[in-house]
Amino acid sequence: MENNNSVNRDLLSNIAEFSEKLLTVADFSKLADNTIEYIACTIKPVYISFLLFEGENYRLCIDKCSGQGVKRTVVPEIKECDQIDLAMAKGGHLLPNPNEDFSRFLVLFDKDQGEYCELCIPFYVTGQFIGIICLGKQQSGLDYSIEAVEFLHVLSNTVALVCQNIVNKSDNNKDTGIKPEKTVDENERKSFNRANIKNIGRNNGSEILGNSSEIVKVREMIEHVAGQEVPVLITGESGTGKELVAQAIHSKSKRSDKPLVALNCAAMPETLVESELFGHEKGAFTGAIAQKRGKFEHAHQSTLFLDEIGDMSLSIQAKLLRILQDGRYQRVGGNKSLYADVRLVAATNKNIVREIQKGQFRQDLYYRINVVQIEMPPLRKRGNDIVLLAEFYLYYYNLRYNRNINGFDDDVLEWMTQYDFPGNVRELKNLIERSVIMGKKSMIGMDSIPGGDLVGLSAADNNSTRSLEELEKEHILSVMKQVGYNKSAAARILGIARKTLREKILKYGITF
């Protein structure tokens, strides 16, 4: 049991990183090699087989296996069969049909699979069978745990997604006869001029801006997963722009003709979350004076974005898991079974693996929502993106408030590149908005920054040995003073949640 638990923790800690790495694979052979290597290191079976088929006749295009003493004796093949009993008697392995269309049955014939295999995980692209991963017993001799099987299903979903990406790229090249475009030069990526800013400003700044390698990587991940029907988990600190990622995924998906439906799981009491998600019937509880449709019902054939899913209670997590498994649910106080075809995108600022180990988050739900993980980097790690974003928000709020502020003093730019921005992009955005509203000069100086005189001098002093925590404490205290110690107003300026502000006040021992 202890060995199983150790394996499960290892799976949780690196599945997201490996899935992200796998999405960059460009050919089927490398996909097979990487998958076999990863399974061999994590699950540790004595035998692994990776089979990939293509076309209406299920032509075998990839056949790779790993294991001591394993030799291929008969070429595996897929056949359509009418008499299942006869096929099974001949050593066939029936494959599940995801579309529940039983007009035909697919059967895998693989002598070695029958001899060595303990576990089979098929994978599909757009509802069509494309491949299968077969595993022998674990080297430990223990049976596969439920968590390990769930992990393998998550892995197979990622493998299917990579297969779809490879097929799409191949089809595009065949249709156009054009080779992939040359990589954009780094200098071209940095050419973010005022014309770009104006175009973005007209769209309310909903794009994910930045030239840093971290943000370029995020945009590439969005392009990879947007068109695929897989759950996505967006991680990162508060204020980094996780909702923008969710909006981008939805707008580039096949469901973009319908609006994105969103719910912040941390913004309301637990008792209301279930009603918000699933709806309720009239009279279900005190105050339920009419029937209400829930977020899942509104998001039918669209995308549902659950922000701060790490704050969801265990009881709601269990109900969420059920609907993610088969799309079925009931309104609160109702007994009618309803169905919702929803693509889930979730976000959290918590370390979910740590929450699982603390017993605060369900491991099986984590496997369901974490098919692909996209991590939003904190602003402090984005280098010159800070100035780029500041220039954009300056232009945007000039338009919004009919102001004409031309730019930033040099000391402000220097301060911004050295400040830690605990509230990330949200804090920077709110800071620029306040500076535009309150500014009385043609340029934004340190006198327009909350606590600017104090933190500006601290940041500019190269000999200072003061920590970022000390500077953050002074900045919070300065903002609090300016708003008359109103926590809600201070949190808005800092770009952090009121709860986060309370935690920082306690952490730093700030008194009023």
The CATH superfamily of the largest domain turns out to be GAF domain
Percent of residues in beta strands:
15-25%
How far from one another are the termini? 52 Å
Mean of all residue-level pLDDT scores: 79
**Estimated structural class:** alpha/beta
Helix content: 40-55%
Quick recap of the structure?
The chain is of the alpha/beta class and 512 residues long. It is built from 21 helices and 18 strands. The strands form six sheets. The protein has a five-stranded parallel sheet.
Care to describe what's here?
- The chain is α/β, with parallel strands linked by helices.
- It folds into 3 domains: about 1-175, GAF domain (Beta-Lactamase); about 215-375, 3-Layer(aba) Sandwich (Rossmann fold); about 380-510, Helicase, Ruva Protein, domain 3.
- Helices cover about 45% and strands about 15% of the residues.
- The protein has helices at about 1-20, 30-40, 85-90, 110-115, 145-175, 185-190, 195-200, 215-225, 240-250, 270-280, 295-300, 315-325, 350-355, 365-370, 385-400, 410-420, 425-440, 450-460, 470-480, 485-495, 500-510, and strands at about 50-55, 60-65, 75-80, 90-95, 105-110, 120-125, 130-135, 230-235, 260-265, 280, 290-295, 300-305, 330, 340, 340-350, 370-375, 405-410, 445.
- Strands 9-12-15-8-16 form a 5-stranded parallel beta sheet.
- The radius of gyration is 27 Å and the shape is elongated.
- About 35% of the residues are buried.
